[in-house]
């Protein structure tokens, strides 16, 4: 028999998650997270909503991927390496306090951990969050966004690239990456090819 004292993923709870994640990212995230920023999280949340709609998810499924997207990078306030595990701890603590049922929490945590590279989603929920996290690879803003990641690597890890090395790294990652959802494979993958071409043009190829 289900525990009737558990709180479902209501719009109110989702709003509370959004406010909590926003507060963490805006007030506790170090300034040198140029890519893994609050703005990136909002971008992923919106991408997850779009992909969930494309995949015909139920309201409950949409809520799960949205909450996972809000929490997926908050662990960076603790440490950048292995931040997914830290994100899970933060999410679990918050959601348990809110009375969310364990089964739903585990689905959310699974979505968060699936974003760890290399991605390896195990169900449709995880596939949506993975594709949302790297949605930008298929978009016109890819180069602008990747430059933020380049800046972040320099600040966090003292990793610096020449323009040529940077474009080559981008091409390698774009070609290695795969989308997981049907929409990702049928639509986003085609759009991603445009960014591969543009990066090669920057190298004179």
In short:
With 205 residues, the chain is mainly alpha-helical. It is built from nine helices and no strands. α2 (38-54) runs antiparallel to α3, α2 (38-54) crosses α6 and α4 (83-97) runs antiparallel to α5 (102-114).
Q: How would you describe this structure to a colleague?
A:
It is a single chain. This protein has 205 residues and is an all-alpha fold. The chain has one domain: Hypothetical protein af1432, CATH 1.10.3210.10. Helix content is 66%, strand content 0%. It contains 9 helices and no strands. It has helices at 11-27, 38-54, 59-71, 83-97, 102-114, 124-133, 142-157, 163-176, 182-202. The longest helix has 21 residues, at 182-202. It is globular. Mean pLDDT is 93; it is low at 1-6.
Task: Label this structure with key terms.
mainly alpha; 66% helix; 0% strand; 205 residues; 9 helices; single chain; Hypothetical protein af1432; globular
- Binned, the helix content reads 55-70%
CATH class value: Mainly Alpha
User: How many strands?
Assistant: 0
Describe the sheet with the most strands: none
Gyration radius, to the nearest Å? 17 Å
Q: What is the string of SSEs from the N terminus onward? A: HHHHHHHHH
Mean model confidence by pLDDT: 93
CATH topology: Hypothetical protein af1432
Which architecture does the CATH hierarchy give at level 2? Orthogonal Bundle
At the fourth level of CATH, the homologous superfamily is: Hypothetical protein af1432
Strand content: under 5%
Number of domains: 1
Structural class: mainly alpha
Task: Give the overall silhouette.
Answer: globular
- Extract low-pLDDT stretches: 1-6
**SS summary, helix count:** 9
For the terminal residues, how far apart are their CA atoms?
63 Å
